[in-house]
Design brief:
Blueprint lengths: L2 H19 L2 H5 L11 H5 L5 E6 L2 E2 L3 E2 L6 H11 L3 E5 L9 H10 L4 E4 L5 H10 L3 E5 L5 H13 L3 E6 L2 H10 L4 E5 L11 H7 L7 E5 L5 H10 L3 E4 L1 H4 L4 H9 L9
Parallel strand pairs: 1-4, 1-10, 4-5, 5-6, 6-7, 7-8, 8-9, 9-10
Antiparallel strand pairs: 2-3
Helix pairs in contact: 4-5, 4-12
């Protein structure tokens, strides 16, 4: 089994356990608690290169990233540093995340929030909406085409923006044919073996139709990389480890953007 296969298997098991503890019908009764909409897609489409700053506790490749970090501390730094939106990694078994991190993020920040997880079930979409997510990630490599199409439709019906992630030409072609999403993420990390190649973004960008919002994900550590991505037409970048592993996430974010990140209008 690949790393991705293992993560999907553990995710399916975890979702089944949560569904047993709180059936879908009961979970859906909590949807009325959702707060004011914070459009994630709009935040990424603003002029210039937008940064989606990620909070995650650990990863299979890096281990524990920022011991003792709190959601409040890190997200405050991100917002002051000019992040356009936030990504909260909620997968527990491999990344140490939780829906509690997402709920905390919603309470301490005004920025739009992406729930980053391995979404394989409609139940997770309802969870996301109830917990306060404005958008969810759907990973093409983790889903059969029929699953991807169904989950994309369900997310839209719940007023969740959807960042659809691809990492090769075949996945991109399938995604464009099936759902033609507004937001396309290019993951420079191959989730099957966790190798990273930033050239993936450059290779796939030419095949993405004009008018899409493109997000480059993973392996971004230097300001020169961001400047080059902006030059070739990328709209946003998703960065986590580089910021979290630094002594000062705000300063690290400002260094990467040259201090040009701007808080969204209110």
């Amino acid at each position: 089994m690949t790393i991705l296969d293992q993560i999907i298997a553990s995710t399916e098991q975890a979702v089944a356990q949560r569904r047993q503890q709180l059936p879908l019908a009961e979970l859906e009764t909590q949807l009325h608690r959702r707060g004011t909409d914070r459009p994630f897609a709009e935040a990424l489409a603003r002029p210039g290169l937008s940064v989606v700053a990620e909070f995650k506790r650990r990863s299979p490749s890096a281990g524990e990233i920022r011991p003792g970090a709190t959601v409040e501390e890190v997200l405050s730094a991100y917002q002051r540093g000019g992040a356009a939106a936030l990504s909260i990694l909620t997968e527990e078994a491999n990344f140490g995340g939780s829906l509690e991190d997402l709920i905390a993020a919603r309470s301490v920040s005004e920025l739009p929030i992406l729930r980053k997880d391995f979404i394989v079930d409609h139940y997770q979409l309802v969870e996301s909406a109830v917990a306060g997510a404005d958008a969810v990630l759907l990973i093409a490599a983790a889903l059969e085409p029929s699953q991807l199409e169904s989950l994309y439709s369900s997310a839209s019906s719940l007023d969740l923006d959807v960042l659809v992630e691809v990492h090769d030409e075949q996945e991109l072609a399938t995604v464009l044919e099936l759902i033609d999403p507004e937001l396309i993420g290019i993951n420079n990390r191959d989730l099957r073996d966790f190798s990273v190649d930033v050239e993936r973004t450059h290779a796939l960008l030419a095949d993405i139709p004009a008018g899409k919002t493109v997000v480059s994900e993973s392996g971004l550590y230097e300001r020169a990389q961001l400047e080059e991505l902006e030059r070739v037409g990328v709209d946003a970048v998703l960065i986590g480890e580089r910021l979290l592993a630094s002594g000062d996430p705000r300063a690290a974010l400002e260094e990467l953007t040259g201090g040009h990140g701007a808080a969204p209008e209110r």
